[in-house]
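Q: Fold this one first, please.
A: Sequence and structure below.
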Amino acid sequence: MLNNYKNSYIVSEKELVSLSVYNVGFQKCDPLYQWGPGIRDHYLIHYIISGEGYYQVNGYKFHLNAGDCFLVYPNTEVSYYADEHNPWEYAWVGFTGSDAASILQATDFTKTSPVIENTPDGNALRNQILKIYDARGNEFEHAVEMTGRLYTTLAILMHNAQKTTDTNTAQSYVQKGIEYITANYSYPITVEDIASYVGLSRSHLFRSFQTVLGISPKEYLTDFRIKQSCILLERSDLSITAIANSIGFDNSLYFSKAFHKEKGMSPKEYRNAKKCR
């Protein structure tokens, strides 16, 4: 008898806006066990612990073995299944968030080649995914711990990336800009401050953000602040003025206008709607 198993955990609330774990688990599959064809609404990394199987995407079929890993992109039709004679065992983590795309662009995954064979530091990658599983839970502290371990997991893939400096320059600038925004959004920082930190002109920073994310640095900063304000509106009793000050707006009226433009309602209406759920 095959000693197969599946342990998985799905997060009920994705509370962190920059990066949040969607699901995590590990499984020893039956022969020919298959998922798909179908699409996911989040990123999903599988690391193959043992055995072998097949991943089909964009008309290509990849034969993968122990030590390989593959990435499922959101809204992309895929299927994957275990080998008939040597079915795979894998660990996986699914995630979403505003940081996800720029981080993955700094790894060796691409949409045309969403696999990494003989993953460098594969055992460390597997262990970090299992640590995310160990931190599972629906309290806010669990979300923070799971996300912290996810960042470490992705850092392993970034550290071992073989991309050249030229192809990764824009992504590096954007990631550095996002790091500055994440650490300083609660202050009244400007695009000029971000550009100075990254070491670029404002126009060069703008082009980098447009190339990588399809939005301007100012749009990213405003979007990040509004998402942080949503957490405060839902989880605190702070006044609208206090929330505006806490996320880097020095004018509560300007904050309310920006919030309404982004969410289609005022901060007060948003808070009331969430409390009525």
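Q: Good. Now the second chain.
A: Here it is, same layout.
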Amino acid sequence: MIWILIISALVLISAIIILCVNIFYRRKISAFSKELCRILDDMTAEKIPDFTIMEDTLDGKINVKLKRLYEILNGKTAQSQRDKEKMQSLVSDISHQVKSPAANLKLYMQILARQDMEEEKRREFLELSAAQAEKLEFLMQALVKMSRLETGIISFEKEKIPVTEIIAEGLAQIAPAAENKNIDVQVNCSDGIFVCCDKKWTSEAVFNILDNALKYTPQNGSIAVSADSNEFYAQIKIKDSGAGIPESEQAKIFGRFYRSGTVKNTEGLGIGLFLSRNIISGQGGFISVKSEPPHGAEFIVNIPLA
């Protein structure tokens, strides 16, 4: 009889223990579910969840994973917002830049439509219209390049090439204009320097800097181009004899559409240096500038060695 009572007692105790364990884990699961729902609700509402980090428990480990997931999603959201703001800024800048030549072209067309205009005046306005059309075409081409660079569409096709080839292509493009202004272009490049870059785009970057130097170098001035190397980079140096760049503006000149108030009368859009910087930095290089007005400016293009 006593054994029956003992067995019954043990069965009862076991049942009570199982019931207690069941209640305990149900409460734990319920608490965890509520906490998980709270975190997910905060994430859905774009609030910063209050994560309870206890890495030595199962709850803590899951919370760590959720916190990491939140950080990743939050980072993607922030990046998406930055991309959206960048695109809005780009569209705004494009609209502003296109507005002026488009308005001028429309005005000239209205004037040319007059029947009583003298032939000489008509030719004058036709030339002005052609100039605005060329400016608009140049602007659109530059904006396409800029947008491709900013959105990461361009894929640089790097190859091993002599730095002298890049310089030669840039110089060939400015030669006629330099001759018209009687600019003395001096070239001093070390032989045997090879760089790893996209030839087409890097030549474009160097040309933009040469073109910039040409614009701000006065008649009968000079431009010195040299190439050397250090341990990591080939250095293309382009020095002009223009008015120079004030120190307060040297950090701004590579900005999109930035133009100093001192050069408003010089033709330009403020895109060339911006493009050059993005092309070179996109290939692991960088551009710096030295200037002490009124003794000209020197741009140093650093391109990774091959």
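Q: Anything worth noting on the second one?
A: The chain has a mean pLDDT of 79.
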